[in-house]
Design goal:
This protein has six helices and four strands; from the N terminus they run βαβααβαβαα. The protein is of the alpha/beta class. A four-stranded parallel beta sheet has the order 2-1-3-4. The structure holds 4-nitrophenyl phosphate. 4-nitrophenyl phosphate (4NP) binds next to loops. The site of 4-nitrophenyl phosphate has 11 residues, from loops.
């Protein structure tokens, strides 16, 4: 059966992905940058909408952490123009998937998910075909940020592979 709101024009609507962490200044903006770069490289940037949010509201309107900006920059990705945003109820209707950095984020998002939500909720790494979680580097070192980049970039490549299948 075809859904009443299905797109019958033959033009596929973009997939809408929202990456979620706690503060939206370290992991999820790095993931957003890596995803945008890998999708562009694969010619899929027109097929996917990417955004990121935090479950917490402490950094609404803030640029990413300077260590996150520097790490992404070392890998050729500019995330300095991103600004912090807090998860809101409408995100569960406007996105297809809310992709969480770690289990704590996953629990927080599931607790807020309305019954009529459109969005699925998953761990970002798992949705990308990988194992594990993305550890919070906020109180860590430059090396911890570099490790986060490695993880989010691998996951971004996993997303590209998933979309190609
Ligand atoms: P993120 O890291 O969740 O990767 O953005 C954090 C940033 C800020 C805070 C916690 C985690 N904070 O408590 O302000």
């Amino acid at each position: 059966m075809i859904a009443a709101d299905a797109d019958t024009t033959g033009v596929q609507a973009p997939l809408r992905l929202l990456v979620v962490c706690l503060g939206n200044i370290c992991r999820s903006p790095m993931a957003e940058g890596a995803l945008r770069a890998r999708l562009r490289e694969a010619g899929l940037d027109g097929s996917v909408v990417v955004d990121s949010v935090g479950t917490g509201g402490w950094h609404v309107g803030d640029p990413p952490d300077e260590r996150a900006i520097a790490t992404a920059s070392r890998h050729g990705v500019d995330i300095s123009g991103l600004r912090g945003r807090q998860l809101q109820a409408s995100d569960f209707h406007e996105f297809d998937w809310l992709l969480c950095a770690d289990d704590s984020n996953l629990r927080a998002v599931k607790a807020l998910r309305p019954h009529d939500a459109r969005a699925g909720v998953a761990l970002f790494m798992k949705w990308a075909g990988l194992r594990g979680a993305i550890p919070d580097p906020y109180t860590g070192t430059a090396e911890d940020f570099e490790r986060v980049w490695t993880l989010v970039d691998r996951a971004a490549q996993g997303v590209v592979e998933r979309l190609r299948q």
